[in-house]
Amino acid sequence: MIKGANVSLAALSENVGSVIVGLGWASPSGEGDADVSVLLLDANGKVRSDADFYFYNNPVAADGSVQLLGKTPTEGGSEDRIVFDLTAVPSDVERIVVAASRYRGARFGELDDVRMTLGDAAGEDLLRFSIDDADSVSAVIFGELYRRAEEWKFRAVGQGYDIGLAGLATDFGVDVDDAEETDATSAAAVLEDASGDEGADTTVAPSSQATLEAVPAPRPPADEPAPRKPAARPRTAKKKVTLPKVAVKTLAENDSWRQARLFPVSALKSDRDREMRATSVLLSVMAQVPEFGRRLTAGFGAPSGRMETFTEVSLPHGDTPRRPDGVIRVERAGKLWTALVETKTNGNPLKAEQVQAYMDIAARRGYEAVITLSNDVALEGTPLVDVKIDGRRKHKVALWHLSWAEVAHQAQMLIRHEGVGNAAHAWLLQELLHYLQHENSGCHGFQNMGPAWVPVRNGIDDETLCQGDPRALEVVESWERLIRQVCLRLGGELGQKVLPVQRTRRGTDPRARRGLLADQLCLDGRLYAELRIEGTPGVLAISADLRTGKLRTSMEIPAPEQGYPLTWAKRLVRRLAEAPADLHVETLVDGETGGPRGTLERLRPEPGDMLPKDGGVRITGFRLSLLKGMGSGRGNAESSFIRSVDDAVQRFFTTVVVHLDGAPSRRTGVR
């Protein structure tokens, strides 16, 4: 679409009761980001109350009409996904504005490929709108959904605010708390509705030049001095229940006593037992904890409504009835949304024949989706199972995948960081999380590097692995799955966004990119990845050298803008007082391959050794690194490669990153 264009959603798809909007961008540095927001407007172009303003501190509407799902990694950066249940939008809401904002002086011109996509409930992309002229603005209105004669339409807006989200939110009637009077005046006639003219362009008047901070402002690090006056911020929703930060002391006499569990795992003997128990446990919690059930199904196009779940349902299919592992049904305004569930545990792969049968059954019965659930992690552009879609059928069925690691991540985010409606819901989610993490459940996430792992390692060791070998591509895909799972686990513990960084050119095909990485693996024998952790001063890099059997975790932190180099060195050593003695510290200098380097043990008594002997050389930063031997096995045993990568990332974060300025706490997930 082009700026100003509008289109009827019904003309694009018959399945637009719910729509999925994605806001995305790419960052050349791998560190650029923005926060999304949604405003529900009445006939006067204003929010009915502050509750109509949705952002990271208020991500879900009570009626389910809006749900911010957070960030999803893409090939070039990340994408924020928002689900709108248009059937649940109150009748006095006429327009829905979708926007995003940057903070701390950042501008959208520093990002690449700024775009918005909109898909239907079946997961099919309906439209794409790219914004190429958002240079100096810090907030952008991407588009709006609006009603015309009981029909929903979309308009591509693509206009910006140069004073950030505060100006935008104020113009739409959000009550911004600000103790200090400002002379910021409201921008006039934002998003004029063009008097109902279907072809009319939408205009946004320029905002005031007042220096008002963006709302919501990013949360400051704990060691920064508190502001003298409260920061500008909208009033937020009521407090939710989270787990206590410190565990309650047990009443058990000794460690041999085990608490009674709602979902016992001791009796699980076979894979079939694990699949049946895991499916029943998960689906029952989804039905009883609306926040959790909605969180898992909203991205699949399910509406907000009363959810019921079922297991071992018999459905006719030729001569032999089929029994999917589970069924999810959501009722909204007399309409039903139905998904069949196929579950695998303990590393067992999904079977294409089974999934194909469920897709056919769902199409014949008018169901909306088939959801597969296993320890595997789906990759963009690479389906876990290949199914054939009969184009002659009018009814479309969406195929979605969940990994057990993602299920555990969502449970962690709710009970440890974001909160749920009441204490009973928090306890249910805690029991579910205990079940998923138990060794007998079989729900441990990605845990096998695949059959190509050992041959590729041997080929690199004896220098017989050639470019173009398909086994190298299999290893690269397994590595990407492992990194995505590491992000989920660390993000769940911290309550922060943790995303893999993809430094690729715009438009690069995912399979072509993995092919290049496979060729590079054949040449230098290394696997490499980067993680962006919200609130940390740099990107966490992971390098696995298959020739030497070493894992390197590292982070580059920039040099302070003010002060003296010796002061920087002393302060860094003080911050790292509890870091491992074998931490490598390297000074990064301008125009050089590298500056002085040494272990923290050697530098502690003499921080000045970190400074270049040539006093005229400019220090640009410091690189902190830990080395660790990698496991050789392809599975998930103590000596395996997967376990060693998990341990290396955990050790680097908990012993190094947490001590750096502004880093989030591993225990509480707050700065």
Word description of this protein:
The protein is built from twelve helices and 25 strands. Helix 3 crosses helix 5 and helix 5 packs parallel to helix 8. The C terminus is likely disordered. By secondary structure, it is of the alpha+beta class. A hairpin with a 7-residue loop joins strand 23 and strand 24. The chain is globular and about 75 Å long. The protein is 23% helix and 25% strand.
Strand content: 15-25%
Q: What is the radius of gyration?
A: 26 Å
Low-pLDDT parts are 178-237, 666-671
Mean pLDDT: 82
Please give the alpha-carbon distance between the first and last residues. 40 Å
Shape designation? globular
| Helix content percent band | 10-25%
Strand order, biggest sheet?
Answer: 19-20-21-22-25-23-24
Sheet with the most strands, sense and barrel status:
7 strands, antiparallel
Query: How many separate helices?
Result: 12
